[in-house]
Amino acid sequence: MVAPPGRLGARGRWLLGLLLLFPVAAGAGEVLPWPGAAGREVGRRGAAGGLPVGVEPSGLVWHTGLGVLVVVGDGGSVSRLDGDGDGDGEHGHWTTWHPGGDLEAIALGDPAASVVLLGSEDPDAVVEFDLGRGTLTGSEWDLSSIMTGDENRGLEALTAGAGLVFAGHQGSGKIYVFSLLSAGEVELQSVLSPLPERTDLSGLHFDRATGSIFSIHDADNVIRQMSLDGTVLQEFALPGDEQEGLTVVPDCARGQAVIFVAQDSGQVWRYPGFPLTCSPARPNPAGLPVGSDSANVHQQGAPVKDQ
Q1: N or C: which end of the chain has fewer CB within 10 A?
Q2: Domain region containing 71
Q3: Is 1 exposed, middle or buried (0-12, 13-18, 19+ CB in 10 A)?
Q4: What is the distance between the alpha carbons of residues 25 and 227, in angstroms, rounded to a whole number?
Q5: Residue 303 has what DSSP assignment?
Q6: Residue 265 lies in a domain
Q7: How many domains does the chain have?
Q8: Of 225, 177, 239, 204, the residue nearest 15 (C-alpha)
Q9: What's the predicted TM-score (pTM) here?
C-alpha cells in the first residue's frame, strides 16, 4: 500500500539541505579508466567452500555489523560468506538459504541487526530476511504500483541510507526513493533521473563514508558516483561483464575502498584499492544525531539506518 505524500517534515528538510551541499564535479559524464587494483574472484561457484552450483549472483551487500558479505541469487537464494573475502574458497565459507522469489538486490537497513532487505522483481517488492534465523521475517513492502517495468526490467537494484530506501529501475535507469512505513506501507519521496542518462541500472550502494550513492550499469560496464539528488560526480569503466550488484567497503584511514561486484555469470569479484575520500563529518543541517536515521519504521519498529 502506498501512503499519500505529506508535507515536508524534519526528515525531508534535512535531506533537502543535505542535497544542496553536494557540488557538481567537473567533467561529470566522462568515463575514466578503472582506478582500482585488479580483481580476484571470491568463493568460486562449485569449488570447496564456494557458492553452490547453480547460484547466479544478482546483488550483494557488506554487512558492517556482522562483518560478512551477503549475496542474493535470482533463483531465490541468499548466501552469507563467513571469512575475509580476500581470496578463494579457502578464505571463507558460504552458507546458503533458499527463501525463494526472483531476488535481484539486497540492502542493509540496520547494521546493528541481523536482518537485511531483499529486492524482488516480478512483482517489484522489498522483503526482510533474518540472517540469524535464515528465514524471511514476514515484513514486506509492495512497490509494483509505482515502479513495475517490462518483464525482467523492473526493480534490479536496492540500497538504504539517510533514513531512506533507494530502488533502481533497470529499464529506465531511474532511482525511486522511498520511506518504508509500518504495516507494509511505502511513501514515495522522490524519483531521481541522473544525467547523462544510462539505462540497464543493475546495482546501487549508499556509501555513508562519503554521503554519496554508487551505481553500476551493466550494458555500459560503468560504475558512477552520485550525490543524493542524482547529480553524477564521476564515472569509471568497470571491469568484468554481466555486473548485477555492488557493495563498497571504505577504509578512510587509507583513502581507499574495496568494491565487491556480483556477476550474473556466477561470480563474485573483489576489487581493492579504489580511491575514496571520506567526508570529515556528515552534513547535518537538521541537527540530527549522526546515525539517527529514524524515519523508516518497519513492522518490528526498528529504523532503517545507513549501510
Answers
A1: N
A2: 13-254+271-275
A3: exposed
A4: 10
A5: B
A6: no
A7: 1
A8: 177
A9: 0.83
